[in-house]
Design brief:
Structural class: alpha/beta
CATH architecture: 3-Layer(aba) Sandwich
Helix content: 25-40%
Shape: globular
Number of helices: 6
Number of domains: 1
CATH class: Alpha Beta
Order of helices and strands: HEHEEEHEHEHHE
CATH superfamily: Vaccinia Virus protein VP39
Strand content: 15-25%
Radius of gyration: 17 Å
CATH topology: Rossmann fold
C-alpha cells in the first residue's frame, strides 16, 4: 500500500469509528452505488463503517440523488454543529475555495474532523453543466486556507516521476505507473513537491 493510500485508510477509519455522523461534500467517497454519480469498488471496504454512522452526501445539484442539495460556499448547517466532513476532489471545482474552507470550519464542532483531497499537478477535469475546474493547490496554499484549524496533516499523493507518467498518455499503462513509483522511491523523488495532489486531515 502506498503512503498516501495508507494515510487515507487510517484517517477515514478514524473518522468513521470516532464520529457518529459524516457529511460527504460532493460525494467523493464513491463507496455506495446508490449515492453520487460514480462508484469506486476500491472504497467498498468503507461500507461496513458507513453503515454504523449517519452518513449523508451533500451536492450542489439534485441529479445524483444526494441527501442534501447545498452550496459549499454557504452551508445550511448551524455553527459548531457537525462532527466530521469529507471533501474529496471538490475544492478545485468551486469558485472560492477560501470561503469554502471557512464554511467547513464554521459548521464543524470543536474537535471535529475534516478530510480533504486536492490536486496539484493534474489534468483539466471540468464536467459541463455540473462544475468547472478552477484551482490547483500547493502545501503552502493548504496551510494558508486551513490556518484556523488546530492541526493539519498533509500527505503527498505520488512522487514527481509517477505524477509525470500519470498525467501523460502513458498513465493508462498501469505497469508504467508502478515502475515510476519505484523510481520515485529509489531516487528520492517520492519526497518531491512536484506531486499529483494532497490528502489532508484536519481537526478544528
Amino acid at each position: 500500500m502506498s503512503p498516501w493510500d495508507k494515510f487515507a485508510h487510517e484517517k477515514l477509519t478514524k473518522i468513521f469509528t470516532e464520529k457518529s455522523s459524516v457529511i460527504d461534500i460532493g460525494g467523493g467517497l464513491r463507496a455506495l452505488k446508490s449515492k453520487g454519480n460514480r462508484y469506486d469498488k476500491k472504497r467498498a471496504w468503507l461500507i461496513p463503517l458507513i453503515e454504523k454512522v449517519d452518513y449523508k452526501v451533500l451536492d450542489p445539484v439534485p441529479d445524483y440523488k444526494p441527501d442534501i442539495v447545498g452550496d459549499i460556499h454557504n452551508l445550511s448547517f448551524s455553527d459548531n454543529s457537525l462532527e466530521s466532513i469529507v471533501c474529496l476532489a471538490v475544492l478545485e471545482h468551486v469558485e472560492d475555495p477560501i470561503k469554502a474552507a471557512k464554511e467547513m470550519f464554521r459548521v464543524l464542532k470543536p474537535g471535529g474532523y475534516l478530510y480533504v483531497y486536492v490536486p496539484f499537478l493534474y489534468y483539466y477535469h471540468a464536467e459541463k453543466g455540473y462544475y468547472g475546474d478552477y484551482w490547483r493547490f500547493t502545501k503552502d496554499s493548504l496551510k494558508y486556507i486551513f490556518r484556523d484549524f488546530s492541526s493539519i496533516e498533509i500527505e503527498s499523493v505520488r512522487g514527481a516521476i509517477e505524477t509525470w507518467i500519470y498525467i501523460s498518455p502513458l498513465g493508462r499503462i498501469k505497469i508504467l505507473n508502478k515502475l515510476a513509483g519505484f523510481l520515485d522511491r529509489i531516487t528520492g523523488k517520492i519526497n518531491s513537491n512536484q506531486v499529483s495532489g494532497y490528502n489532508v486531515f484536519l481537526v478544528k
